[in-house]
Each structure stands twice: as structure tokens, then as C-alpha cells.
Amino acid sequence: SEIPVLTIDGPSGSGKGTISRAVAARLGWHYLDSGALYRAVGVAAGWADLDLADPAALVRCAFDTDIGFRADPAGEPRVIINGVDATDELRTETAGAAASAIAAIPEVRSALRDRQRAFRRAPGLVADGRDMGTVIFPDAGHKVFLTASADERAERRYKQLKDKGVSVTLDGLLREILARDARDAHRAVAPLRPADDAVRIDTTGLGIEAVVERVLALVQP
Ligand code: C5P
């Protein structure tokens, strides 16, 4: 495809979502939050009371679930699952854990592959996820792999959740992040790893704007 793609992969808490959205806005490009697709399937599976150990049912769920993205009047992205606004439920640790579990099923990943590629529309796409540069858009012209220390990622998440009034402990979050990292890095299909041609940026100690500028400089030197 001639339509440019910038892939931004990395572990949870690396700042991918914030950076990707900001870069997409600055470029005027479309934005794909691929994690939201996995989370949406996890949430829909929960609604349908599906067994997370029943791959066939989860694959059907991945094909059948209607997942829509739209901006609310304030411009904040909302995720609509089967007609229901599930944005808040999608961000919970439960949805993240369900997403991570179903994301390990190869047929679920292929069920979502074409949906992800359909986001590639003019004038360009910023694709945020774990395997954007390695599996979904291997031909992307620009690839970034964002990292940050586990401690810093846990702290960022802690602040986010505290601002929302969710009660969590820093220690608990750090343990969850390390467990999810291990699961995402060691699974047999599409393990989290940088594409060979990805530019790695360690965001530990860097502010959002500094990272956004570094990413934009790759696309518009
Ligand atoms: O990025 P986010 O935390 O929303 O992703 C939730 C989970 O979905 C991740 O922990 C990962 O297991 C899975 N995922 C994936 N491939 C992607 C995006 C997310 O496997 N491209």
C-alpha cells in the first residue's frame, strides 16, 4: 500500500497510547488502538459469560463482536461494543487481563488482523500495539519501539488510576505489569519484540512532549 504507516509498539505503560494519539493528531493521520480491539473482545466475552479457556468460543466472539470507535463532543475517544459505550469498562485491569489471555490465541489474532489493516486510510495511520511493526504492518515506513523501566510504568499507571479515584497499590501494579510483560513477551504467537527496523526510544524520565518530538522527527525529518 502507498498509504504511510507509523507503528508504535511497546509494553503497557510505555506511554504508547498517549504518544500515538498526540503524534496522530499532529500529523492529521488516523489512529489505531489495537489493544482496544483485544480488550473489546475480552469485555464482550465477559458479557457473554464465555470461558476464557474455550478458544473456539473466543474466536467466534472475535469475529462476531461489533467494535466501533468514535469521538465524544469533547473529542475524547469512545469505544462502542455491540452498540454499547464500553470505554470505561475497557480500561479496567480486568479487561486488560482478559485481553492479554485471549491475545495468546492465534485464531483470535488472525480474526482481528484484517480489521486492523482496514484502519490504513489516507492520509496515513499511526498504529499502536504490540505487533504493529512485526506482524500487522511489516511494510510500515516508520517503526518505533517505546520502552520505560517497569518502576516508571507502574508509577504512571498508579497516577492515572489515582486520578480516576481507583484504589490500587503501587506494589500490586508493578507485580501486574511484570506478569503481563512476561506473558506478552513469552507467548508463542506474536510475542512482544521490536521489529528489526524499529527505532527504540526509552521514555524513562522523558516528558510526553519530548517523546512526541522525537517520534515526529522520524516521520518528518
Ligand atoms: O495496549 P493494551 O494494554 O490496551 O493491550 C491489552 C492487551 O492486549 C495486551 O496486554 C496484549 O496482551 C494484547 N495486545 C496484543 N497485541 C496488540 C495489542 C494488544 O496482544 N497489538
TrEMBL record:
It is found in: Cytoplasm. Coiled coil: none annotated. One of its GO terms (molecular function) is kinase activity. Its EC number is 2.7.4.25. Keywords: ATP-binding, Cytoplasm, Kinase, Nucleotide-binding, Transferase. Its main location: cytoplasm. This is Cytidylate kinase. It catalyses: dCMP + ATP = dCDP + ADP; CMP + ATP = CDP + ADP. Residues 7-220 form the Cytidylate kinase domain. Belongs to the cytidylate kinase family. Type 1 subfamily. ATP binds at G10, P11, S12, G13, S14, G15, K16, G17, T18. InterPro entries: Cytidylate_kin (IPR003136), Cytidylate_kinase_dom (IPR011994), P-loop_NTPase (IPR027417). It comes from Luteimonas endophytica. The keyword ATP-binding applies.
